[in-house]
Design a protein that fits this description.
Distance between the termini of chain B: 24 Å
Radius of gyration of chain B: 16 Å
Oligomer: heterodimer
Order of helices and strands of chain A: EHEHHEEE
Structural class of chain A: alpha+beta
CATH architecture of chain A: Roll
Number of strands of chain A: 5
Number of domains of chain A: 1
Largest sheet of chain B: 5 strands, antiparallel
Strand order of the largest sheet of chain A: 2-1-5-3-4
CATH superfamily of chain A: Beta-grasp domain
Shape of chain B: elongated
Largest interface: A-B, 26 and 36 residues
CATH class of chain A: Alpha Beta
Chain lengths: 81, 153
């Protein structure tokens, strides 16, 4: 299946885009997705180690399974306020 | 009231928004761009957010705060885009019947917002360098536990 991942802040600047599209296996888990992104976008690797992933605007754990129409985002450590 | 805005924040308006005859206390917290961090000088900050998730997360924090304190009204306004020195980036206002709860709830909301809400700031240093602020220990990759609000806080 094809999925889109939103990128913000340093992740957006390092990859020079606000969203990436990837072809992934059905049933892929969040932890596996992080490894896959790191492989395809090596510049993001260090930041991904410190980042969370959100699914449908909720923080996900590494064993959460991704579905085709999920809203997915990479969430680097936040610094609001 | 929850708002994420490109405009400068009218902090008095945020305070006014929580006024109520039922409240005997109102607390307003305002965060603003500081010139020095140690010996490093900031020229300005630039904020970015994941708007829809940020608004939902702020609402969840207010809902959770409302289970911990008897909040009469609460407003959170965060500015995004460029925020110059001395300008306000965030205003949190809470009103309650008595002052202790207002102080505690406002402090808790600001603390939690800084680790749970997808908003990021970039420093422009006087040296000309820029730097996204991605502090370690933020972004808690678990959903908020409404049954046990103390957990992980």
């Amino acid at each position: 299946m094809k999925i889109q991942i939103k990128l913000f802040a340093a992740a957006r600047e390092l990859s020079d885009r606000g969203e990436i599209e990837m072809e992934v296996d059905d049933g892929i888990q969040v932890g596996e997705l992080k490894i896959k992104i790191s492989g395809e976008y090596p510049k993001l690797k260090d930041l991904i180690l410190r980042s969370a992933v959100s699914l449908n605007r909720e923080f996900a754990t590494d064993d959460n399974v991704i579905c085709e129409h999920d809203e997915i985002a990479l969430i680097p450590p936040v610094s609001g306020g | 009231m929850i708002s994420i805005t490109n405009e400068s924040i009218d902090t008095l308006k945020v305070l006014e928004s929580v006024k109520s005859d039922l409240a005997g206390a109102s607390v307003l917290f305002v965060g603003s761009t500081r010139q020095f961090t140690g010996d490093k000088e900031t020229v300005r900050l630039e904020y970015e957010c994941y708007q829809t998730m940020a608004v939902e997360k702020i609402q969840q924090l207010i809902d959770l705060a409302s289970t911990k304190w008897e909040i009469t009204r609460c407003s959170v306004v965060h500015r995004i885009g460029i925020v110059g020195l001395g300008e306000s980036s965030i205003a949190v206002a809470v009103s309650t019947a008595h002052r202790k709860a207002s102080f505690e709830a406002a402090a808790w909301l600001v603390d939690e917002l800084k680790i749970q809400v997808p908003i990021w700031k970039k420093e422009l240093w006087a040296s000309g360098e820029t730097e996204w602020v991605h502090p370690s220990g933020t972004v808690r990759p678990i959903p908020i536990n409404f049954d046990n609000p103390q957990e992980g806080s």
